Amino acid sequence: MDGHINTCSAQLADNMIKAINKGERIEAKKVYGGFAMDVIARTAFGIELNSQEDLNHPFVRDAKLLLSFVSSDAWYRVVLMAMPCLMPVVKFLLTKVFQLQGWTPFSQTVLRIIQQRKSEGKSAQKHTDFLQMILDYEDNEKPENERLKSLSEDEVLGQATAILLGGYETTSTTLKFLSYNLALHPEIQEKVVQEIKDQLGDGDVTYEDVAKLKYLDVVNETLRIKQTGLGNSDNERCDNPKGAGVLIPIANVLNDPEYFPEPDKFIPERFSDETKGSRSPITFLSFGFGPRICIGMRLALMEIKIAMVHVLRRVKFIKTDDVQHSFVPITRFLQVVIFVYYDCPDDSSKELQRAESLSMKFLGSGSLREREDTRSLVWSQQKVLLQTDLR
Length: 391
Fold this sequence. Notes:
Blueprint lengths: L1 H20 L6 H18 L12 H12 L5 H8 L4 H11 L6 H17 L9 H8 L15 H15 L1 H16 L1 H14 L7 H6 L5 H8 L24 H5 L18 H4 L20 H16 L24 E4 L18 E4 L13 E5 L2 E7 L2
Antiparallel strand pairs: 1-3, 2-4, 3-4
């Protein structure tokens, strides 16, 4: 696995050097997005490509179509987040009325790969990717106690789609923000580079090598400051019905000064072994926590760190005078999702029929401890905009 990532990381550094030698401006989103796509193609599907240069590759084209189809900017994503019960209606509108089939080309690509693998049989060269792992578990020649229940075609496609959706935007965005922070803090960048020189040689980077790079946990500080996903909140005094969505306000927790003093500052030392031991591990929720923690966490961190090693061996990030170096909070007009948490059924003194008396007040971002009796949170990006009390 780390061999695939090293190959893609070397391509990433090569493409940066080519652009620099040509005097071209490097668009971080493009190069890191291409890198993430290359890693997914190799590790998940066994496809070798360089999407940073070849955007017309069929796999890249189909994958980008799917990514645009499920973009958070899409109106139907907003509708389904607020009212998942409308899934049948939205699906009908998309497929029958608007005839949008963003997932179809990608699904067909994955099915072709599966059919090719099965037709190759045992004589073919052994593939070492996630898709092959799924197919191996379905191997009917294995003893029954070692064989998984056969997955349906939709289940295999679902797993393949989840790998793409979960590994593309998150990885490329984290690399982009990490590069930005290193450019703003050259003294931190120098420490990272020096650690790479002290701990590693000039060759490929292994999983064991990554574990030696303690200061490269600078990536965790990047994830703390700029999260790549939204979160949810729950009122602990109420029982949520089965299937209810529960949002944890990750941004609020990661910027709570009780756990992370001076949260607006970029301080990688927060994640040293000594400092981490002084606070609860559940305060760092960028990958979730517990048995349902992100299944791709180790792969994502290894991917990001190996990429940074290859890039920082050859490239230095610096501030430029023609770029505004500040983060601007984003609030999308009308793209607001309402999550309603109802009172406990046994609390007869508070009924939903009294919703006409609901009160609303605006809130700033901050610690949840300061917000009591919350029934509904309205989210736009990472800012809590509105509180609704149904009492």
